[in-house]
Design brief:
EC 6.3.3.2; alpha/beta; about 190 residues; 7-stranded mixed sheet; Rossmann fold; nucleotide-binding; 11 strands; globular; 4 helices; 5-formyltetrahydrofolate cyclo-ligase
């Protein structure tokens, strides 16, 4: 099993490619069902990523239903590829969603939300280790975003696959997860 970010990124992208639409739906639902067990439901603002279908990411539709059912405020983002910064918006019935040039579904407009009020962040990832380190696509959007969150913001990775033992090339600036939820298990760090 590879242990550096570059090889792990490739390995998990390939594993994802093998997943069928049914696999993704089934595993995404199992992840959402496991989330119910976490002690996070007394918060107000939940940041959710909208999946890039083409990259076979975890489908967060089930999590969105869970959050609306619990009357939570849902926050989604728009990415600026020049600055590698994300701007956050409240998801409402009037929010228009449009895919950007990288197939990332994003809000076209809406009410901007300051990072300081976000309580929980569901984090997309390709792989993670038993220490709570994660590997994303390597663009650093989430590292920048998570670094701006308040210290008590709960960071939850979502993964179709189990953890790797250890990621070798972790940086000081990498923000660790508090939990990672897979279809079969909840990891607490």
């Amino acid at each position: 099993m590879p242990t550096n970010k570059k090889e792990l990124r490739l390995h998990y992208k390939n594993l994802r490619k093998e997943l069928s639409t049914e696999d993704i739906e089934e595993k995404s639902l199992a992840i959402a069902n496991n989330l119910i067990q976490l002690p996070i439901w007394d918060k107000s603002y939940y940041h959710v990523f909208l999946p890039i279908i083409e990259h076979k990411e975890v489908d967060t539709e089930f999590i969105l239903h869970l959050l609306s059912g619990k009357d939570k405020e849902i926050v989604i983002s728009k990415s600026d590829f020049e600055t590698r910064e994300m701007t956050h918006f409240l998801l409402t019935d009037n929010t228009k969603i449009k895919k950007n040039e990288f197939n990332i579904p994003e809000p076209v407009n809406g009410l901007e939300v300051p990072v300081s009020i976000i309580d929980v962040v569901f984090v997309p990832l390709l792989a993670f280790d038993i220490y709570g380190n994660r590997i994303g696509y390597g663009k650093g959007f989430y590292d920048k975003f998570l670094a701006k969150c308040k210290p008590e913001t709960i960071k939850i990775g979502l993964s179709f696959f189990k953890s790797v033992e250890m990621i070798d090339d972790v940086f000081e600036s990498d923000i660790k997860l508090d939990y990672c939820v897979t279809p079969l298990k909840i990891y607490t760090f």
